[in-house]
Amino acid sequence: xxxxxxxxxxxxxxxxxxxxxxxxxxxxxxxxxxxxxxxxxxxxxxxxxxxxxxxxxxxxxxxxxxxxxxxxxxxxxxxxxxxxxxxxxxxxxxxxxxxxxxxxxxxxxxxxxxxxxxxxxxxxxxxxxxxxxxxxxxxxxxxxxxxxxxxxxxxxxxxxxxxxxxxxxxxxxxxxxxx
Length: 179
Description:
Helix content is 39%, strand content 15%.
């Protein structure tokens, strides 16, 4: 083989090795998907808030309780806060049974919270975020609760949002904390 052909074969081999190596290495440096986890849980909590807001808009006092929801309101929960739950696996979005005022200026009362902590939000270049629980408040804001804060919550007045669409939810008795 002549010297020029040998150089050409070596050059093609080097380029081919580089391309194949890049094909294996580049995915390792690509950012992980941010689908699911707290991204999805935050969206679902916000959807639950919007469902509460739609129901509250039809009431003069702006207060709503899931025990008082109409069939249309329940359907809104089914289409909004329940539909995307495949992105959070076995986790649950819990919603309050308490009567709450909804909307801007409302007290910062939790209306929806995910029962599972995830570590994909906020997104980081290296490592993972600390595990947190997605939450939505009556004033329309959302946030992330550290695990310690979540553990201190009294969730006795909350139910899985999936129960709203198909079952009657009894109002909570504030004195006893029971339904």
